[in-house]
Amino acid sequence: MMKHFPASARHSVDLGWLRSAMSFSFGEYFDPDNSSFGVMRVLNDDTIAPGRGFGAHPHSEMEIVTIPLTGRLKHEDNLGNIEVTSAGEVQRMSAGTGIIHAEYNDSDTEEGTFLQLWFMPKERGLAPSYEMASYDEAKLQNALLPVVTPDGAGDTASINQDMTIYLGRLQPGRRIFFNQKTGRRAFVMVLEGNMNVNGIAMGPKDSIRAEFEPDFVLSAEESAFVMLIDLP
């Protein structure tokens, strides 16, 4: 079973310094029929003005992943971590029993765009932690490259959940095949370009939520950038 969500279906917020398109209920936006997809709780597509960002605020019992699309995001937390993440990198924060952090656009002149993803943890009550990982963008070509995994294998960031985040870039006329294990969910979002997923035409920031779909065929007649998340 697959359900297509066009980019225009997302809830949008414009605060001047922040423009955000929300795939799920978040903050003042609440839709009881759109509060989560399995353990996936939040996907905010944020554009942050130069030098602006989110001041210090707390989180607990949530796995939070940030994927920069353009620009640089500066992270600071009460564990002493100070990092700047840009395209080609991902950051993972396990809020656990509690963490306080702040995030800002690290540029004084250019906007930055970042995907903020939240997932419910597999295990509660863990100590909070932070990790940044980089990936080889050449390995995205016509393939799905894991960038966040349960065990942090290879160059991936680890996460306290039975899930994997993949990124991939399709060249014109190429295909990517993905086999979904029995009883799993998948979330697919086109980040750039236009593509076809199992016969569904998708544009930029369109998404699909799929349950019990054994195989995926991703194809594109032009260059495209895609994210696929394998979920329990």
Automatic annotation (TrEMBL):
All residue ranges annotated as the Quercetin 2,3-dioxygenase C-terminal cupin domain in the record: 147-231
CDD domains with a match to the protein in the record: cupin_Yhhw_N
Domain Pirin N-terminal: 14-118
Signal peptide: none
Domain of life: Bacteria
UniProt family annotation: Belongs to the pirin family.
Entries under PANTHER family matching the protein: QUERCETIN 2,3-DIOXYGENASE
Protein name: Quercetin 2,3-dioxygenase
Organism: Paenibacillus glycanilyticus
